[in-house]
Amino acid sequence: MTLQIAALASGVGSNVAAVIKSINEGMLDARMRIVISNRPGAPVLEKAAQAGIPVYVKDSADCENREDYDRALLAAICDAGADTVVLAGYMRMLSPMFVAAHRGRILNIHPSLLPSFPGRMGTEDAIKYGVRLSGSTVHFVQETMDSGPVIIQVVVPVHAQDTGETLMPRIQALEHRIYPQALQWLAEDRLRVEGHRVNLLPARKPNGSMASFGQSPLGPWMVSPPLEGF
Amino acid sequence: MTLQIAALASGVGSNVAAVIKSINEGMLDARMRIVISNRPGAPVLEKAAQAGIPVYVKDSADCENREDYDRALLAAICDAGADTVVLAGYMRMLSPMFVAAHRGRILNIHPSLLPSFPGRMGTEDAIKYGVRLSGSTVHFVQETMDSGPVIIQVVVPVHAQDTGETLMPRIQALEHRIYPQALQWLAEDRLRVEGHRVNLLPARKPNGSMASFGQSPLGPWMVSPPLEGF
Questions:
Q1: Across the interface, do B155 and A155 touch by the CB < 8 Å criterion?
Q2: Residue A142 maps to a domain
Q3: Dihedral of CA B81/B85/B91/B92: which sign?
Q4: How many domains are contained in chain A?
Q5: Fewer beta carbons under 10 A from the terminal one: N or C of chain B?
Q6: Is the pTM of this model over 0.80?
């Protein structure tokens, strides 16, 4: 069923742009109903406006009570006719009330192989730790940060000379594929949460592979479950 | 410089066997001087004996004081002429005294993408969490468990239907390549610990790749840094 998406973002919103692109290309069965930001002037707002998508801005600096703030967001989401919440660099914890209101319909993307390196500085923390493989995770959102059931993960190599600035583009290039893919699986109603694990129901035309992997100009990568055309 | 290895293992010792095989094939510049176990009857002991390698067994159940126990191990390692300690499923914490005695010369392999899922049940914990990518990590040993600087990591996909029993063989097949590779880099004196990161000095014939990846009968995998012939 066509997803009616509300995207929440605090910054550049490259993942929001990737989702919009996938919708426009007919890959993702969804409509972007509204883009919401807690930061006035966030670049994602201009991207949304250029794409003709309504925006809603409410400065989180002005609002001391998280539940009051989130209630305003829920009203904006409801007014926009959205049924699915897509977090894309939304740098603010959601209240349990917000999570309960859209349980099972809130997705987040986090630039690490969760549960390693949750929190605001996932990429930088991975660099500091010295892991040789990192990546990104799309997951269902629960009350605690960066901890919900995992839908899809991508891995890329980390080099000894990497900084956050050199690693991030390699991760983001793949985020722009795995996030639309995860949303399309949600649109196809193929995701089943069983305990803390996510079971992906088979496609009508299963391709039989165990993972997607390849080599881009930015380097090698591997995705599990395998991508289906993204 | 040829490594003089003491291997510590509590169980089957498939990684010990893989190291011995790499030595015998002339891939790994090392000698296996002694195999040590804290469990009488551990299968690794028979493997070692068949390969003509001296063994030392001291039942950890008989010994209440960890430092006393580790002192006996240090003496056995010294007597055997070993200078490098290889942990391979050694299910016992080392005392800080032991770690200090061989600092920078103790390696461990752990069946997860550290820092995710440290501890005894790495593979099972990854399954329970529902990650879609897991693997194994070779790292230098520090006082705290499964936390030292990372030398090499391998990743494999995890499937929704996986159990520990089905995931483990896919991880182990790659462990048998990355552990000898990490040891060969140590033998070539190419590993430099800088803070918590490990810098791998270039090979004399650098191959220029960012990672090794491939597809085996067990499925796809990716290793970083890239393997050099292993």
A1: yes
A2: yes
A3: positive
A4: 1
A5: N
A6: yes
Give the residue ranges of DSSP H helices in chain A. 14-24, 43-50, 66-79, 96-101, 122-129, 164-187
Domain at A159, CATH number: 3.40.50.170
Residue A185, domain extent: 3-195+214-224
List the single residue in B with minimal CA-CA distance to A218.
B210
d(CA B169, CA B132): 16
Closest chain B residue by Cα to residue A202:
B160
Residue B119 in any domain: the answer is yes
Q: Are strands B84-87 and B55-57 parallel, antiparallel or unpaired?
A: unpaired
Q: Which residue has the tokens 């790994």?
A: B28
Contact B222 A157 (CB under 8 A): yes
Please indicate, yes or no, if residue B80 is contained in any of the structural domains: yes
CA torsion A4-A229-B214-A128 (nearest 10°) is: -30
Element (H, E) at B34: strand B30-37
The predicted-structure confidence for A136-187, as pLDDT tens digits, reads as follows: 999 999 888 788 999 999 999 999 889 999 999 999 999 999 999 999 999 9
SS3 B2: coil
Catalytic: B110?
A: yes
Measured CA to CA, the distance from residue A103 to residue A110 in angstroms comes to 18
Strand-strand pairing, B84-87 and B106-110? parallel
How close does chain A come to B112, measured CA to CA in Å? Answer: 11
Of B121, B126, B226, the closest CA to residue B182 belongs to B226
